[in-house]
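Meet my pick.
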Amino acid sequence: MISIWEQETFFAPQDIIIAGSGFNGLWAAFYLKKKSPKLRITILEGGAIPTGASTRNAGFACFGSLSELVYDGAAMGTEKMQQLVELRYKGVQRIRKHFKPSQIDFDLCGGYELFGPAHNPTADKLDADIAYINTLLQDITGSKSTFKRTDKKLENFGFGHTTHLVKNKLEGYLHSGKLLQCLLQTVQSMGVQVLNGFAIKSYEHKGHSLDVHTENSYSFTTAQLLVCTNAFAKTLMPDADIVPARGQVLLTSPIDGLQWKGAFHSDEGYYYFRNLGNRVLLGGARNKDLAGEQSFVFATTDTIQDELERYLAEVVLSQHAGQYSIERRWSGIMAMGSEKTPIVGEVQPRVFASVRMSGMGVALAPVVAQQVADMLLA
Protein backbone atom coordinates (compact mmCIF):
# COMPACT_ATOMS: atom_id res chain seq x y z
CA MET A 1 0.00 0.00 0.00
CA ILE A 2 1.25 3.49 -0.80
CA SER A 3 1.97 5.95 1.99
CA ILE A 4 -0.15 8.97 2.84
CA TRP A 5 2.67 11.17 1.50
CA GLU A 6 2.58 9.41 -1.84
CA GLN A 7 -1.21 9.45 -1.94
CA GLU A 8 -1.31 13.20 -1.43
CA THR A 9 1.38 13.95 -4.04
CA PHE A 10 2.28 11.49 -6.77
CA PHE A 11 -1.04 9.62 -6.63
CA ALA A 12 -3.32 12.54 -5.81
CA PRO A 13 -6.51 12.91 -7.89
CA GLN A 14 -5.83 14.69 -11.17
CA ASP A 15 -7.81 16.94 -13.44
CA ILE A 16 -6.32 15.31 -16.53
CA ILE A 17 -4.23 12.20 -17.02
CA ILE A 18 -2.44 11.88 -20.35
CA ALA A 19 -1.42 8.45 -21.62
CA GLY A 20 1.92 8.73 -23.39
CA SER A 21 4.80 11.20 -23.16
CA GLY A 22 5.66 11.35 -26.83
CA PHE A 23 5.26 14.48 -28.94
CA ASN A 24 1.48 14.37 -28.85
CA GLY A 25 1.17 13.97 -25.10
CA LEU A 26 3.78 16.62 -24.30
CA TRP A 27 2.36 19.20 -26.71
CA ALA A 28 -1.13 18.58 -25.28
CA ALA A 29 0.14 19.12 -21.73
CA PHE A 30 1.88 22.29 -22.88
CA TYR A 31 -1.28 23.80 -24.35
CA LEU A 32 -3.45 22.69 -21.43
CA LYS A 33 -1.15 24.31 -18.88
CA LYS A 34 -0.70 27.40 -20.99
CA LYS A 35 -4.44 27.94 -21.14
CA SER A 36 -5.23 26.80 -17.58
CA PRO A 37 -2.11 26.91 -15.35
CA LYS A 38 -3.86 25.54 -12.25
CA LEU A 39 -4.78 22.23 -13.85
CA ARG A 40 -3.41 19.15 -12.14
CA ILE A 41 -1.96 17.11 -14.99
CA THR A 42 -0.06 13.83 -14.89
CA ILE A 43 1.42 12.09 -17.90
CA LEU A 44 1.74 8.33 -17.53
CA GLU A 45 4.41 6.79 -19.76
CA GLY A 46 4.79 3.05 -20.04
CA GLY A 47 8.46 3.05 -20.96
CA ALA A 48 11.60 4.38 -19.37
CA ILE A 49 11.44 6.91 -22.22
CA PRO A 50 8.80 7.31 -24.95
CA THR A 51 9.22 4.19 -27.05
CA GLY A 52 6.72 4.51 -29.90
CA ALA A 53 7.88 6.69 -32.77
CA SER A 54 8.70 10.09 -31.28
CA THR A 55 12.38 9.35 -30.73
CA ARG A 56 12.72 6.46 -33.19
CA ASN A 57 12.07 8.29 -36.45
CA ALA A 58 14.30 9.99 -39.03
CA GLY A 59 14.03 13.51 -37.60
CA PHE A 60 12.30 15.09 -40.59
CA ALA A 61 10.53 18.46 -40.40
CA CYS A 62 8.39 17.91 -43.46
CA PHE A 63 4.80 18.08 -44.67
CA GLY A 64 4.70 15.73 -47.65
CA SER A 65 6.67 14.97 -50.80
CA LEU A 66 5.31 15.83 -54.23
CA SER A 67 4.37 12.31 -55.29
CA GLU A 68 2.79 11.63 -51.88
CA LEU A 69 0.60 14.72 -52.16
CA VAL A 70 -0.40 13.85 -55.73
CA TYR A 71 -1.36 10.38 -54.53
CA ASP A 72 -3.19 11.71 -51.46
CA GLY A 73 -5.11 14.22 -53.53
CA ALA A 74 -6.41 11.41 -55.72
CA ALA A 75 -7.08 9.02 -52.82
CA MET A 76 -8.45 11.43 -50.18
CA GLY A 77 -9.78 14.23 -52.32
CA THR A 78 -8.12 17.58 -52.85
CA GLU A 79 -9.72 19.33 -49.88
CA LYS A 80 -8.74 16.68 -47.31
CA MET A 81 -5.21 16.58 -48.67
CA GLN A 82 -4.91 20.36 -48.34
CA GLN A 83 -6.26 20.27 -44.79
CA LEU A 84 -3.71 17.64 -43.80
CA VAL A 85 -0.83 19.54 -45.38
CA GLU A 86 -1.93 22.70 -43.58
CA LEU A 87 -1.84 20.91 -40.23
CA ARG A 88 1.65 19.60 -40.93
CA TYR A 89 2.96 22.91 -42.22
CA LYS A 90 1.61 24.82 -39.23
CA GLY A 91 3.11 22.23 -36.92
CA VAL A 92 6.61 22.76 -38.31
CA GLN A 93 6.17 26.53 -37.93
CA ARG A 94 5.13 26.13 -34.29
CA ILE A 95 8.20 24.07 -33.53
CA ARG A 96 10.31 26.85 -34.97
CA LYS A 97 8.38 29.42 -32.95
CA HIS A 98 8.85 27.72 -29.58
CA PHE A 99 12.41 26.42 -29.87
CA LYS A 100 15.64 27.93 -31.12
CA PRO A 101 17.34 26.02 -33.95
CA SER A 102 20.38 25.43 -31.73
CA GLN A 103 18.20 23.73 -29.09
CA ILE A 104 16.86 21.06 -31.41
CA ASP A 105 19.40 21.05 -34.28
CA PHE A 106 16.76 22.44 -36.62
CA ASP A 107 17.95 23.15 -40.15
CA LEU A 108 15.72 24.44 -42.95
CA CYS A 109 18.06 22.78 -45.42
CA GLY A 110 15.40 21.87 -47.96
CA GLY A 111 13.54 18.70 -48.74
CA TYR A 112 14.03 16.75 -51.99
CA GLU A 113 12.32 13.94 -53.83
CA LEU A 114 14.10 11.52 -56.15
CA PHE A 115 12.42 10.10 -59.25
CA GLY A 116 14.02 7.09 -60.87
CA PRO A 117 13.20 4.04 -63.02
CA ALA A 118 10.47 2.67 -60.75
CA HIS A 119 8.59 5.99 -60.68
CA ASN A 120 9.88 7.99 -63.59
CA PRO A 121 7.39 10.53 -64.94
CA THR A 122 8.32 12.55 -67.97
CA ALA A 123 9.60 16.06 -67.34
CA ASP A 124 6.33 17.43 -68.71
CA LYS A 125 4.24 15.28 -66.37
CA LEU A 126 6.43 16.19 -63.41
CA ASP A 127 6.20 19.90 -64.22
CA ALA A 128 2.42 19.60 -64.50
CA ASP A 129 2.22 17.92 -61.07
CA ILE A 130 4.47 20.61 -59.59
CA ALA A 131 2.34 23.42 -61.00
CA TYR A 132 -0.87 21.73 -59.80
CA ILE A 133 0.33 21.08 -56.22
CA ASN A 134 1.98 24.51 -55.96
CA THR A 135 -1.35 26.13 -56.80
CA LEU A 136 -3.12 24.07 -54.13
CA LEU A 137 -0.52 24.90 -51.47
CA GLN A 138 -0.01 28.59 -52.22
CA ASP A 139 -2.46 29.83 -49.58
CA ILE A 140 -1.00 27.37 -47.04
CA THR A 141 2.72 28.04 -47.45
CA GLY A 142 2.52 31.58 -48.80
CA SER A 143 4.78 30.56 -51.68
CA LYS A 144 3.95 30.26 -55.37
CA SER A 145 6.72 27.70 -55.81
CA THR A 146 6.76 25.34 -52.83
CA PHE A 147 8.06 22.61 -55.16
CA LYS A 148 10.58 23.13 -57.94
CA ARG A 149 12.33 20.70 -60.30
CA THR A 150 16.06 20.94 -59.77
CA ASP A 151 17.60 18.21 -61.95
CA LYS A 152 20.85 20.17 -62.27
CA LYS A 153 21.76 19.21 -58.68
CA LEU A 154 21.82 15.50 -59.55
CA GLU A 155 25.33 15.60 -60.94
CA ASN A 156 26.70 17.18 -57.77
CA PHE A 157 24.71 14.91 -55.44
CA GLY A 158 25.86 11.76 -57.22
CA PHE A 159 22.69 9.68 -56.79
CA GLY A 160 22.36 6.54 -58.85
CA HIS A 161 19.31 5.48 -60.87
CA THR A 162 17.77 8.95 -60.53
CA THR A 163 16.37 10.93 -63.43
CA HIS A 164 14.66 13.88 -61.78
CA LEU A 165 14.96 15.76 -58.49
CA VAL A 166 12.28 18.00 -56.98
CA LYS A 167 13.06 20.44 -54.16
CA ASN A 168 10.79 21.76 -51.42
CA LYS A 169 12.53 24.82 -49.99
CA LEU A 170 10.31 24.90 -46.89
CA GLU A 171 11.35 21.58 -45.35
CA GLY A 172 14.31 20.46 -43.30
CA TYR A 173 15.24 18.29 -40.36
CA LEU A 174 15.78 18.35 -36.60
CA HIS A 175 16.99 16.21 -33.70
CA SER A 176 13.98 14.26 -32.45
CA GLY A 177 15.55 13.41 -29.10
CA LYS A 178 16.51 17.01 -28.34
CA LEU A 179 13.05 18.26 -29.33
CA LEU A 180 11.39 15.74 -27.02
CA GLN A 181 13.74 16.60 -24.16
CA CYS A 182 13.02 20.31 -24.60
CA LEU A 183 9.29 19.67 -24.55
CA LEU A 184 9.61 17.45 -21.48
CA GLN A 185 11.62 20.07 -19.60
CA THR A 186 9.13 22.76 -20.61
CA VAL A 187 6.01 20.98 -19.37
CA GLN A 188 7.71 19.88 -16.16
CA SER A 189 8.67 23.51 -15.48
CA MET A 190 4.97 24.36 -15.92
CA GLY A 191 4.04 21.90 -13.16
CA VAL A 192 3.13 18.81 -15.17
CA GLN A 193 3.97 15.53 -13.44
CA VAL A 194 5.52 12.88 -15.70
CA LEU A 195 5.72 9.32 -14.36
CA ASN A 196 7.60 6.66 -16.30
CA GLY A 197 7.00 2.94 -16.07
CA PHE A 198 3.22 3.31 -15.75
CA ALA A 199 1.56 1.77 -18.79
CA ILE A 200 -2.22 2.17 -18.60
CA LYS A 201 -3.99 -1.18 -18.76
CA SER A 202 -7.60 -0.06 -18.45
CA TYR A 203 -9.94 2.55 -17.05
CA GLU A 204 -13.46 2.62 -15.63
CA HIS A 205 -16.01 5.32 -15.03
CA LYS A 206 -16.77 6.08 -11.38
CA GLY A 207 -19.44 8.76 -11.12
CA HIS A 208 -17.96 11.99 -12.43
CA SER A 209 -14.41 10.66 -12.51
CA LEU A 210 -12.34 7.84 -13.96
CA ASP A 211 -10.25 5.20 -12.26
CA VAL A 212 -7.16 4.54 -14.35
CA HIS A 213 -5.42 1.20 -13.79
CA THR A 214 -1.81 0.54 -14.76
CA GLU A 215 -0.01 -2.68 -15.62
CA ASN A 216 2.06 -2.50 -12.41
CA SER A 217 -1.11 -2.53 -10.27
CA TYR A 218 -1.15 1.18 -9.37
CA SER A 219 -4.33 3.16 -9.90
CA PHE A 220 -5.04 6.85 -10.39
CA THR A 221 -8.19 8.96 -10.26
CA THR A 222 -8.82 11.67 -12.81
CA ALA A 223 -11.61 13.86 -14.09
CA GLN A 224 -10.55 13.34 -17.72
CA LEU A 225 -8.27 10.99 -19.65
CA LEU A 226 -6.41 11.85 -22.85
CA VAL A 227 -4.98 8.97 -24.89
CA CYS A 228 -1.86 9.96 -26.86
CA THR A 229 -0.21 6.59 -27.36
CA ASN A 230 -0.70 6.57 -31.15
CA ALA A 231 -0.43 2.98 -32.45
CA PHE A 232 -0.51 1.60 -28.90
CA ALA A 233 -3.87 3.26 -28.31
CA LYS A 234 -5.44 -0.02 -29.46
CA THR A 235 -5.00 -1.23 -25.86
CA LEU A 236 -7.46 1.39 -24.61
CA MET A 237 -9.41 1.86 -27.87
CA PRO A 238 -9.74 -1.67 -29.32
CA ASP A 239 -12.31 -0.63 -31.93
CA ALA A 240 -10.32 2.33 -33.25
CA ASP A 241 -9.32 2.42 -36.91
CA ILE A 242 -5.61 2.08 -36.10
CA VAL A 243 -3.06 -0.27 -37.62
CA PRO A 244 0.56 -0.43 -36.37
CA ALA A 245 3.20 0.31 -38.97
CA ARG A 246 6.81 -0.44 -38.13
CA GLY A 247 9.34 1.91 -39.66
CA GLN A 248 12.89 0.55 -39.90
CA VAL A 249 15.99 2.72 -40.07
CA LEU A 250 19.74 2.30 -40.50
CA LEU A 251 22.67 4.66 -39.97
CA THR A 252 26.03 4.53 -41.75
CA SER A 253 29.53 5.27 -40.53
CA PRO A 254 31.02 8.69 -41.43
CA ILE A 255 31.63 9.15 -45.14
CA ASP A 256 34.43 11.31 -46.48
CA GLY A 257 33.33 13.70 -49.19
CA LEU A 258 29.56 13.29 -48.80
CA GLN A 259 28.30 15.60 -51.54
CA TRP A 260 24.83 16.49 -50.35
CA LYS A 261 22.83 17.81 -47.42
CA GLY A 262 19.08 17.73 -46.85
CA ALA A 263 15.99 15.62 -46.20
CA PHE A 264 15.16 13.30 -49.11
CA HIS A 265 12.18 11.16 -50.13
CA SER A 266 11.27 8.82 -52.94
CA ASP A 267 8.47 6.44 -53.92
CA GLU A 268 5.58 8.46 -52.40
CA GLY A 269 7.50 8.83 -49.14
CA TYR A 270 8.10 5.12 -48.57
CA TYR A 271 11.87 5.72 -48.73
CA TYR A 272 13.48 8.59 -46.86
CA PHE A 273 17.01 9.58 -46.00
CA ARG A 274 19.06 12.50 -44.71
CA ASN A 275 22.56 13.35 -43.71
CA LEU A 276 23.43 13.29 -40.04
CA GLY A 277 26.64 15.25 -40.22
CA ASN A 278 28.65 13.18 -42.68
CA ARG A 279 26.72 9.98 -41.98
CA VAL A 280 23.59 8.81 -43.83
CA LEU A 281 20.36 7.94 -42.01
CA LEU A 282 18.04 5.90 -44.25
CA GLY A 283 14.62 4.50 -43.44
CA GLY A 284 11.48 3.08 -44.98
CA ALA A 285 10.93 0.34 -47.59
CA ARG A 286 7.86 -0.70 -45.58
CA ASN A 287 5.99 -1.16 -48.86
CA LYS A 288 8.16 -4.21 -49.56
CA ASP A 289 6.36 -6.08 -46.76
CA LEU A 290 3.31 -4.09 -45.68
CA ALA A 291 1.65 -7.03 -43.92
CA GLY A 292 4.82 -8.04 -42.10
CA GLU A 293 5.44 -4.50 -40.90
CA GLN A 294 2.00 -4.24 -39.27
CA SER A 295 3.70 -5.13 -36.03
CA PHE A 296 3.98 -3.88 -32.45
CA VAL A 297 7.41 -5.56 -32.12
CA PHE A 298 10.45 -3.28 -32.04
CA ALA A 299 12.77 -5.23 -34.29
CA THR A 300 14.56 -5.06 -37.62
CA THR A 301 14.08 -7.71 -40.30
CA ASP A 302 16.30 -9.03 -43.07
CA THR A 303 13.63 -8.32 -45.68
CA ILE A 304 13.52 -4.60 -44.99
CA GLN A 305 17.14 -4.09 -43.96
CA ASP A 306 18.42 -5.86 -47.09
CA GLU A 307 16.23 -3.61 -49.23
CA LEU A 308 17.45 -0.51 -47.41
CA GLU A 309 21.06 -1.58 -47.95
CA ARG A 310 20.36 -2.19 -51.65
CA TYR A 311 18.81 1.26 -52.02
CA LEU A 312 21.68 2.80 -50.10
CA ALA A 313 24.30 1.18 -52.34
CA GLU A 314 22.54 1.64 -55.69
CA VAL A 315 20.96 5.06 -55.24
CA VAL A 316 22.08 7.08 -52.22
CA LEU A 317 25.77 6.19 -52.07
CA SER A 318 26.40 4.76 -55.52
CA GLN A 319 29.64 6.74 -55.71
CA HIS A 320 30.90 5.63 -52.29
CA ALA A 321 31.14 1.86 -52.64
CA GLY A 322 33.34 0.34 -49.96
CA GLN A 323 33.65 3.63 -48.08
CA TYR A 324 31.10 2.99 -45.33
CA SER A 325 29.63 0.43 -42.97
CA ILE A 326 26.31 0.21 -41.13
CA GLU A 327 26.74 1.46 -37.56
CA ARG A 328 23.25 1.20 -36.16
CA ARG A 329 19.76 -0.17 -36.94
CA TRP A 330 16.47 0.46 -35.17
CA SER A 331 12.71 0.66 -35.64
CA GLY A 332 9.75 2.70 -34.44
CA ILE A 333 6.03 1.93 -34.44
CA MET A 334 3.77 4.39 -36.26
CA ALA A 335 -0.04 4.41 -36.43
CA MET A 336 -1.87 4.13 -39.74
CA GLY A 337 -5.49 3.51 -40.63
CA SER A 338 -7.97 3.54 -43.47
CA GLU A 339 -7.21 7.25 -43.89
CA LYS A 340 -4.38 9.60 -42.93
CA THR A 341 -6.44 12.12 -40.99
CA PRO A 342 -5.67 11.92 -37.24
CA ILE A 343 -8.25 10.72 -34.72
CA VAL A 344 -8.85 13.73 -32.47
CA GLY A 345 -11.79 14.11 -30.10
CA GLU A 346 -13.92 12.60 -27.35
CA VAL A 347 -14.21 8.82 -27.78
CA GLN A 348 -16.15 8.14 -24.57
CA PRO A 349 -17.53 10.43 -21.86
CA ARG A 350 -14.50 12.23 -20.34
CA VAL A 351 -12.11 10.14 -22.48
CA PHE A 352 -10.37 11.89 -25.37
CA ALA A 353 -7.85 10.78 -27.96
CA SER A 354 -5.22 12.34 -30.19
CA VAL A 355 -3.77 9.46 -32.17
CA ARG A 356 -3.09 8.04 -35.67
CA MET A 357 -0.43 10.44 -36.90
CA SER A 358 0.28 8.34 -40.03
CA GLY A 359 4.03 8.76 -39.77
CA MET A 360 3.89 12.56 -39.51
CA GLY A 361 3.76 13.01 -35.73
CA VAL A 362 6.64 15.47 -35.56
CA ALA A 363 4.74 17.95 -37.73
CA LEU A 364 1.16 17.11 -36.73
CA ALA A 365 1.50 16.96 -32.94
CA PRO A 366 1.96 20.71 -32.27
CA VAL A 367 -1.36 21.44 -33.99
CA VAL A 368 -3.63 18.48 -33.23
CA ALA A 369 -2.54 18.55 -29.59
CA GLN A 370 -3.85 22.08 -29.28
CA GLN A 371 -7.11 21.01 -30.93
CA VAL A 372 -7.68 18.24 -28.39
CA ALA A 373 -6.58 20.50 -25.51
CA ASP A 374 -9.27 22.98 -26.48
CA MET A 375 -11.84 20.16 -26.50
CA LEU A 376 -10.81 19.05 -23.02
CA LEU A 377 -11.28 22.58 -21.69
CA ALA A 378 -14.52 23.32 -23.53
